[in-house]
Amino acid sequence: MLKIAVCVSGGGTNLQAIMDAIDSGKIADTSIEAVISNKRDAYALERAKSHGIPAVCISPKDYESRAEFNEAFLEKLDSYAVDLVVLAGFLVVLPEEMIRRYRNRIINIHPSLIPSFCGKGFYGLKVHEAVLERGVKVTGATVHFVDEGTDTGPIIFQKAVDVQEDDTPEVLQRRVMEQAEWELLPRAIDLIAKGKVSVADGFVRIEE
Ligand code: GRF
Fold it and tell me: Which of 105, 99, 172, 103 is closest to 141 using CA atoms?
């Protein structure tokens, strides 16, 4: 059984896709041990609660310093003894100690085709605004392992999504979620649960 924790900051549609995929059997042999958010009002926490999954908020606002937040966050995460951490719209810079402790056991969904439109400042709607500003014809989503950089870890899956003439950032975001994010993240978790994903020299190998 693959035990996972899902870290969220927003609406939780990627979390919902994971929960639905576990329920339907699209993700094998996986249990969500906890959903952790830095935002008390994240609707993703409501989604977890209505699914009977422990939902906790660890907010930087409740700590005197970043170091104290980092320590509390890591202590809470460690308490669930998970195999894999899934960042699903999690807008927090991870503690370096966490990256070390969970080397190649943290995955993230990013709403562009990395290395385009990623890195500092590229998150949520800002990604799609930049895509439309640049006038690219194809965008998409990327699932990758998390390392010390921002959106720089080994890539697991990518999927392209067409940009359409009259797209707004909101319409484009929704298409990227529907056509790419909500498919790629569950698929990555399923293959990790089946032991079919490995990382060597910074590259991902997948046994299909
Ligand atoms: C999505 O656009 C996702 O790509 C990005 O953050 C947003 C979160 O969406 N990482 P949700 O909270 O999963 O609905």
Answer: 172
Identity of the residue numbered 159: K
Residue 11, ligand 1, Cβ within 6 A: yes
Does this model's pTM top 0.85? My answer is yes
pLDDT of residue 208: 74
How do residues 109-142 score in pLDDT, each as one tens digit? 999 999 999 999 999 999 999 999 999 999 999 9
- For residues 184 and 141, is the Cβ–Cβ distance under 8 A? yes
Residues near 190 by beta carbon (within 8 Å), at least 6 away in sequence: 21, 26, 27, 28, 30
Does residue 37 line the site of ligand 1, with CB under 6 A? no
**Residue 166 token pair:** 């009259």
